[in-house]
Every structure is written in structure tokens, then in C-alpha cells.
Amino acid sequence: MRRTETALEEERTTPYVVDAATAISPSPGPRDVADLEVAARVTVIRPASRVPRLDVGELWHYRELLWTLVWRDVSVRYKQTFLGVAWAILVPAFTALVYVIVFGKFANFPAGSTPYPSLVVAGVLPMQYFASALTLSSMSLLSNLPLVTKVYFPRTLLPLAGVSVPLVDFVIGFPVLLALIWKYDTWPSGWETATAPLFILLAVVTVLGLGLLLAAINVRYRDVRYMIPVFLQVLPLLSGVMFAVDQIPEKWQWILALNPMTAVIAGWRWAMLDANPPDPAQLAVGVGVALVLFVSGLAVFRSSEPRFADTI
Fold first, then answer.
1. Whether residues 141 and 30 fall in one domain
2. The dihedral formed by the CA atoms of 283, 287, 289 and 291, expressed in degrees to the nearest 10
């Protein structure tokens, strides 16, 4: 009799049972529907593919996490600093000032028909973005150690967030270039202005490929943090930041064309300053190298991803 009363009591207090397979309730509300959709979603973790593949659908599913990571880094980037976001303007301005004095006045680097201050600032802005993005993306796994070791999410979100944060600094520092364009009256006069975002996209693809590669290597070999500053010190000279690439001997132009940032800076100057257009063949070489770096970095990152939590 006690068992029968217990069964009746359970029947009264539990009017329905949600099946794990169907997850259907008699009258689900909006919140219940959202909960059931989350419960019905199945995440399948498979071994890393030998073919480098960027799962765009999975990245889109975790887009809110990407936004959270980006906003976190942006909000703390200049926290407890006296000048705050003004550093995003002062850093490229001071860097360009040093370049103008040293390489423009004393070394007399070639600038072509473009005013030298505008030429330098148009090169410094993409280079500053590249340097910051490479540093953040290559250190992204180590900087988010608790997430990597305890929570599942696509690890490619971390380098992707690392290359997204410096875009904010790039936008904030852009008025420095606009001021020089206004001063020297070098406004672009044609359709090439519309291609400016494409050259920034080329920089993003390049730095993302390198960031994925170095982030994977940095998990096992911590030499990356010492190697990057040395690399970034010589990169402006190898990218044409201080001079117009079309003004140097042609053989050196082809050597510098192997660096995708050379194509980025030359194309950005053409789009924003009405400078000489980049050579199409040299531009194609730069784009090809950028794609190779991206595919190679993605392949190394995805193949190493299953071992991150154990190795780090």
C-alpha cells in the first residue's frame, strides 16, 4: 500500500517526463524552447583532419565567445593608463616622426612623388597593426591557459581574437593619416579607394596564418616570445615602410615582393594617397605567399590542436 501511494504521489507531482531523444514538453514556453534546443544540440569531437580546414559553421556558433574575448582584450588594453586610447594615436605618430627625421632628413630614402610624412604614416599604420596582431595571436594560447585546459571550444578563436583586437587601434590611429592627407592635399582621385579594405584584409590573412603557426609552436617551444621582437625590428625595412618600393632597383622589388606586407603597404598607399599602383605581378606574389602562410599555419594548428591541453 505504501508503494502504491508513493507511485501515485510521483504521478501527481510529475505530470510529464521529457525524453532525452525527443525533448518535448506539453506546453513549452520561450525559455523552455531555447533550453530544449541547447539540449538537443549535439557536439561531435572528431580527430583533427589531415586536410587543413577552417570550420566556419562552428566558428559562427561560438561567435559570442569571440566577441567576448575581443571585448575583454579591448577593455583592458589601456586600463589604468593615464592617456588611455590616446596611445593608439601617439604610438604611430611618434614612430612616424622618428622615421621622418632619421630616414627622410638624414638618410634621404626615396619617396617618389608622395610627401614623405604621408608615405611613412601610410606604412606605419598597417605595420603597427601587423606587429600587435602577431604578438597577441602567437601568445593567445598561453594567455588563455585556463580556457584551453578546461573548456571545449574551437581553439582557432583565440588567434582570431588576437588579430581582431588591434583593428580597433588601427581605426583610432587612422585620423593621423587623414590629417596628413588634408595637409598635403593627397586625396585619392579614383576608384582605387574602394580597394583599401582588401589590402587590410590581406594583412589580416597574413598575420592570422603566422599567428596560428607560431601559437601552435609556442605551446611546445617557448622561444617564440623572444624571436618575435627581433623579427618585428627588421620587418619595417623589409616591407617598404620607410621608402617607396617602386623607387628601388627592380631586383630588390621582387625580393621584397616575397613579403606580403610589402604588397599591403604599397597597395594601401595607392588606395589612400593616390601613389603609384603596385606592380600586378609582384602583388600576385605577395597574395600567393599570404595564402600559403595561412594554409600552412592552419594545417599546423589543427594537427597540433588535440595535444594543446596536455602539452601546454
1. no
2. -170
CB atoms within 10 A of CB 32: 13
Rounded Cα distance, 251 and 257, in Å = 10
CA dihedral 167, 236, 119, 278 (to 10 degrees): -90
Taking each helix axis from N to C terminus, what angle separates 166-184 and 260-273, rounded to the nearest 10 degrees? 40
Residue stretches of the chain with pLDDT short of 50:
1-27, 30, 33-34, 36, 38-39
In Å, what is the CA distance from 228 to each residue of 49, 136, 164, 169, 222?
29, 11, 19, 20, 11
Q: What residue type is assigned to position 225 of the chain?
A: R
Please check whether residue 281 lies inside any domain of the structure.
Answer: yes
Q: Which of 98, 104, 130 is nearest to 244 (CA)?
A: 104
Give the model's pLDDT for residue 99: 94
For 274: left if phi > 0, alpha if psi spans -120 to 50, otherwise beta; the answer is left
Instruction: Note if the pTM is more than 0.85.
Output: no
pLDDT digits (tens, 9 = 90+) for 133-158: 999 999 999 888 888 888 888 889 99
On whether both 261 and 138 belong to a single domain, the answer is: yes
Report CA torsion sign: 153, 143, 88, 263. Answer: negative
Instruction: Take residue 139 and report the three cell numbers written for it.
Output: 601568445
**Domain match, 164 and 244 both:** yes
